Amino acid sequence: MSVEVRIPTILRTFTGGEKAVRGDGATLQEVLDDIDARNPGLKDRIVESEALRRFVNVYVNDEDVRFTGGLNAPTSDGDVVVVLPAVAGG
Amino acid sequence: MDGVGRGITPNVTAVLKIAREHVDDIIAHAREDHPDEACGVIVGPEGSAVPTRLIRMTNAERSPTFFRFEPQEQFALYKQMSTTGEEIVVVYHSHTATEAYPSRTDISLASEPQAHYLIVSTAESDASGGGVSVRSFRIVDSAVTEEEIDVTE
Question: Of A8, A9, A88, which is closest to B69 when you measure between CB atoms?
Fold first, then answer.
C-alpha cells in the first residue's frame, strides 16, 4: 500500500469521508484500479473511456500527469497522487 | 458556529456573509476582463465558512462563454491551502452576456460542494462602467439554491 491518493471533497462519498487513501501500482492506472477495488465507483469519476476525464486534473508528486503519460504515468513507493476537479463553468 | 455540518456534508447557510472590499474587487475584476469571463476564489480557514482572502485566477479559456481555472494556478492554490489550513469558501465568476444565474455548464461542472458560487453579470455594462448584478448560490448534486448576500463593511 505504497502510493497515497488525495481525494477531493466531492469524491469523499466514495471513500467513507477519508481525505486520502492508499494503493499499489507501478502506474497511475494500476493505482486507480487498486483503490477502486476498495472504493467502488471512484475510478469512474476520474477516468472515462480509458482516459482521464477532461475536467479532472491529476498530479503525481506535483507533476500534471497530462505531461507525464496520463494514466500510464509511473508511480512508486512514497509517491503522492492529487486528484483535483477543475474549477470551471460557463 | 458549532460542529454541525462539518466533514463531507456541506455547511449549508442561507446567507453568504462577504466583505464589501471583496465584492468591490470581484466587480472590478469582472469589468477588467469583460467581455471574457473573470474567475477566482475567496478562501478561508477550513470549516469556518468565512471568506477572508481573495485570489484572482487566470481564466485559461479566455472566453466570453466559458471559464476554467488555469490548472497550474489551481494546483498552486491547492498546495498553499494545504499548508495554511484553508479551503475554498467562495468561487466567483462572471457572465458577460447573460444573467447572474448558474448556467447548465456551471451546474454540471460544480465540484466544490462546500463553496458559495458567486456570479456577477456584466451583461448590462462594459469595462468603463454600467450596472452589474451579483448573486450567490449553492450548487450541490446539481441542485441550485439561491442565497442572500450580506455585505459587511
Answer: A88
Q: Does any CB of chain A come closer than 8 Å to the CB of residue B143?
A: no
Tell me how close the Cα of A72 comes to any Cα of chain B, in angstroms. Answer: 20
First to last CA, chain B: 21
B65 touches A: beta carbon within 8 Å: yes
**Set of cell numbers at residue B116:** 458559495
Q: How far apart are CA A87 and CA B39, in angstroms?
A: 9
Q: Which ipTM did the prediction report? A: 0.92
Residue B56: inside a domain? yes
The whole-model pTM stands at 0.90
Q: What is the pLDDT of residue B13?
A: 52
- Cell 448534486, located at residue: B141
pLDDT tens track for A5-21: 999 999 999 999 999 99
Residue B124 sits in a domain of what CATH number? Answer: 3.40.140.10
- Alpha-carbon A17 to chain mean position: 16
Upstream peptide bond of A40 is cis (omega within 30 degrees of 0): no
Contact flag B67-A8 (C-beta cutoff 8 Å): no
**Range of B129's domain?**
15-152
DSSP letter at B9? Answer: S
Number of separate domains in chain B: 1
| Each residue's pLDDT tens digit, B105-132 | 999 999 999 999 999 999 998 666 788 9
User: How many Cα atoms within 13 Å fall on the side-chain side of residue B16?
Assistant: 28
How far apart CA B64 and CA B62 sit, in angstroms, is 7
**B111:A10 CB<8 A:** yes
Fold of domain A3-85: Ubiquitin-like (UB roll) (3.10.20)
